[in-house]
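Submission sheet (multi-component)
Chains listed below:
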Amino acid sequence: MSEQSYSSSELMIINSARLLRDGDVVLVGVGQPNLACNLARRTHAPNLVMIYEAGVVGAQPARLPLSIGDPTLVSGALSVCSMYDLFAFYLQRGCVDVGFMGGAQIDRFGNINATVIGDYAHPKVRLPGSGGSKEIAAWAKRCILLTPHQKRRFPEKVDFQTSAGFLSGRPEREAAKLGGGGPQAVVTDLGILEPDETGELVLTALHPGMTAEQAKANTGWELKVNDPLRVTEPPTGEELRILREELDPSGIYLKGAA
Amino acid sequence: MQSKLMSLSEAVQTYVHSGDTIYAAGFTHLIPFAAAHEIIRQGLKNLTLARATPDLIYDQMTAAGCARKVIFSYMGNPGVGSLRIVRAEIEKGNLEWEEYSHFAMISRLQAGATGLPFMPMNPTAAVDLEQANPNYRKVTDPYSGNEVVVVPALIPDVSIIHVQRADADGNAQIWGIIGEQKEAAFAGRRVILTAEEIVDEAVIRSDPNRTLIPGIVVDAVCQVPFCSHPSYTQGYYDRDNKFYLEWDKISQDPAGVQTWLDEWVYGVKDRQEYMQKLGPEVQARLKIASRPSIPVDYGQY
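Outcome: structure written.
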């Protein structure tokens, strides 16, 4: 296995995992975020406290949980509580450091749409809806988002604001006096976007071999490019091994263009 | 102690009526599929199906024509993708829907369960859903003068709750993910309890901290082993992730869904027949190794 050979999904998962800090209390979203958090716990963040919205606190899953309500999350966890307790005592109370989520659409100011494409009452495409994300985006101290870099996923403005990023910019979010600080970064398969001083997402890093032109061409607003522009470290053999052999041996989430 | 034991068929016949609002509880865990299949077999119609996650259970009930409306907060096949039938019916305009975030949905149940008219939540600044759903309101906190977001109590006509073990009176113990089971039980006007095992009252009394639902809110108690397949029952059998992935394919084709319903719902009498039809291979695949807790000592006082 060459270290240069990895899929775009693996690239996103590995780079977003690296943004977690050891000791963070993270509320883990379904799908790829789930893989990223479990990877971080097995590499640089062994003291990561993983919370799942089903009401599991301090999970140490022995296998990759397909859903965020899998029984492997419970066996060996620190605590299990009701969903009401999870959202009220843990999230609303301010105990969660990081919300870790995907999103169908993310706009210029990091607002997320997971609800609908087109008109709400007469949906063109009906998406799953908020789940926990409306409150997670508001009250987690910071949020890490990951999604593939495609123009339709990065519109200037989302069709429906399921979850708040910086709204129309940092002043509006600050005026709303939410418990959480908003998006820390959006990790894509091309690079990393981070909010500038106005709350606008700008390109701050590229993955090896990717170009700023590619990122611009796949973004629905005029994407600003930070200077200097970092290049992320390529996935290590160990990160890829854990993902492929331990976390997703049947490739349910790791499929994606090589 | 009175016995509320009856068959699931009798419980559905007695306590569920066409037009009811139903809350079949369980966040991924303990989803009472057997009860849904019995409701389908009994041909109940115009139901309002409320659940945080409609999951396959409401996809199947919608496919069978039971549903008039869904109330939900996350409409997906968890970990797999789209919940195709509910989604298609909404997109076609055939199915009414009422939508919340998870916290708002379970806050509604919390209000219903505790006899309060509504529950307050801190604002999230994401107001589009609050504008789309008039049940979201704002009130002024009389202490600080700040606004809080409120949602009204949800009081299902019938709540259906699956548990690991219960006594004949419906005192029920659950371990593993407890989701919104307790809230749904206390909020429901009528409560049907299904249990993997019916145990003696002394078993319940040996570990009172584990009793999540007291018999005083329960109307019917049904012994239904394997009730939650393809969902799971912690410590009893695993989630059938393979079926959740298969449903993604089955549900792409309406004719295939009807064939599936004919075979697995209409074609069996009850959950026991369904289990026999699943066969020993599937049951062996979902068998799990033991990992008991260390017993606690309550002391003899």
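Remark: Chain B touches chain A through 56 residues (CB under 8 Å).
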